[in-house]
Specification:
5-stranded parallel β-sheet; alpha/beta; 9 helices; Rossmann fold; about 190 residues
Length: about 190
Amino acid sequence: MNTHSTNFSVRLGLTGSIVLTGFRGSGKSTVGQILSEMLGKVFLDTDVMVTREAGMTIKEIFDMGGEPLFRKLESEAVKKAAGHSGAVISAGGGAVTAAENVTRLKACGMVIWLDAPAEVLWKRISDDSASGASRPNLTSSGGLDEVKALLARRRDIYSTTADIVVQADGSPEAVAASIISKIAGRQDCRRQ
């Protein structure tokens, strides 16, 4: 962590964590890493935390115990991540479907929804060969239809959970810059 990043974080008035939510493919991990470097904050990815703790891929966890096992492990990871002060946290795409996760994430900092159209999300997911190998389909249809169906079901949850909504259909650097701009604008409004 360098002094410039720390000073930037202080100038923005960021004392808590920044929590990134959104559907798979919205850029939470990539944008989160960029933000953590910009702000001099630790980066925590709940999906990575789950796979490390379980010693399995998400797909293997689903094969072993289905979605209930994965969501249980995800909630444990959210609890650990939310316990870190002043981190950038990438919350798994479905983490906000559990009320206790939402409560923890909102209590630890500012929640930012990375919103993108289903077509953009599907293109990113299908272009990521590692994602297909390590993550299961969450509906029987898979593909763009799955993204559209799940996004439609989760849109209200993402929206009501978020303190800030950022359009995430641009480059990761542009999305990170938009987040910083929106946080700065929000902090300026609070000071007035």
